[in-house]
Each structure stands twice: as C-alpha cells, then as structure tokens.
Amino acid sequence: MSGSIGTINIGGGKDEPAKAPGFLIAETVSFGDGTATLNFNHTGEDYEFGASLVSGSADGTHAINHFAGTTILTGDSSTFAGTTTVSGGTLLVNGTLGGDVVVEDDGRLGGNGTVGSDGKRVSIEAGGVLCRKRDREFRLTGRRARDGGLHTGHRALSGARRACG
Description:
This protein is mainly β. The chain has strands at 5-11, 28-31, 35-41, 47-49, 52-55, 61-68, 70-73, 76-77, 83-86, 89-93, 96-97, 100-103, 107-111, 114-115, 121-124, 129-130, 138-140, 143-146, 156-157.
C-alpha cells in the first residue's frame, strides 16, 4: 500500500547493537509500494538467507542494509530494484542480487554469485572491500564505480586480491 512502512530486522535493528540472528522461513520477501527495509545486524558468522528478494513495485522505496555479521544470500534476487548498503560485516552473494549496491567503509562484499543490474550502480567506497572466495568467480553487472582501491574493466572478477575469510 502506498505510504506504508515495513522493516524486517535480522538480529538488531538500525542503530542497535548486533544480536543473534533469528529465522525467517519464507521463499520470497516482496517489497511493495511503500517504504520497505531489510536490516542484517547480527552476530552470526555464516547466516544463510535463502529467500528471494523481489521489488514488486517500482513505486516503492526498497532498501537492504548490512550492518554486522556474515550473511550469505543464496536466493534469486535479480528483480530487487532498490539499494543495498553494506556498511559493516560481510555480505556474501551466492545467488543473484539486483539493484544498486554500495559498500561503505568497514563493509565487505563477496561470494560466488552476481551483484547489480543493468543501469544500476555498484560502488565500492574508500575503506570498503570487494572480496572473493578462493577459486570462485564473482560477477558485477551494471555500472561500476570506485572511491577506494578497486579498479576493473572486467565484468567477471576472478582475481580480487582479498579473500572473504
């Protein structure tokens, strides 16, 4: 519904201390016409999130925020059209994640999946880290920007210098 607001917190909420992650048992999380936010702010070291994230409406404001913990996205979220911000912890994409992606200072992005969408932006800011698992390929699509140490003209990053740990 237009004008509605919804937030799902995995662990603590925004501006709260990280907490143990709970469980969300769903095949799909649909972001609708209003403002919808999914926050990952947890203490887990390998929290797997398998639901597909879908922007069901172009009229909404959709956000994924990653503050703490290590989260592994395994679903097909290629139709997510909002903005994902990784400001802390590690977000590993082993499926697909569409939309704009920003990795801020202290954030880490990696995995063996595909991140970004055509016409969207993937930005690794100063202090942000793009990492990969050894012997895995990590794909960025859309426009790439850098404000830190990342510079690539290749769509497939198979030789990033930092491992995801």
